Amino acid sequence: MEIVQLGKIDFMNKNKFVIFKVVLLLVIGLCFQSYTFAQEKISMEDKIIGSTFKTLAKTFVVMVDIDKLKKDNINKLNKMDKEKFIKRYAKAYEVIKDLPPELKISYGITENMPKEQAIKNIESFDKKNIYKLIDSIPDTIIAKQFKKYLSEKKEEVQKSSLVAQINKFWNKMVEKVNKPTTK
Question: Is the Cβ–Cβ distance between 180 and 6 less than 8 Å?
Answer without folding.
Answer: no
